[in-house]
Here is the input.
Amino acid sequence: MKTFKQFQEQTVGESVEAMGHLQAGMKKQWGIKPNPYNDAKIQADNNAILAKHRMGTDEIGGSMSMTRDGQNINFGEFGGSLAKQVTNKAIGSVDTATSIATDPKHASKLKSHGTNADEIRKGAGELKSTIQRGGNEAEFNIRRGINQYIPGTFSHQAVGVEKDIQINTAKAKADANKNKSGIKWGVN
Here is the structure.
């Protein structure tokens, strides 16, 4: 039976392999040229090819671009930009609703319901702040969650560094957590 760590390592390996197959298939399908030396002209040509393949709706969508090293399609950046667009659209909807609700012609109705335009604006500000925080978190998690499997992205490099730090500090953490006081806690 596999340990959780073995299962996790296998899953990461399969994810990296699957991302490699997806990258290869899309590069072939769309005619993305290899760019082993990160040539600026090839990078620009490949980004132009990707720009022709816009995805999404008229309101939310966009095109992808290559990673900074020119080797892979940056799916995480695309996903993160979609999350940002959704966040901005939600904030725009709150602004529109707030503008309608705080129109001076509705002041008497607001007063009869025990509120006023300032209270509506305050609540809308809090709601927008919550939407923005959630949107920023979603954008980060989407970008990082996808790009950790794509070589040439910051997230992919960061995961490697995090693993190195974890490995190099594991013994120090275990030593620091040892009971050095001689007092036994719990039941024998």
About this structure: The chain has six helices and two strands. Residues 117-147 form the longest helix (31 residues).
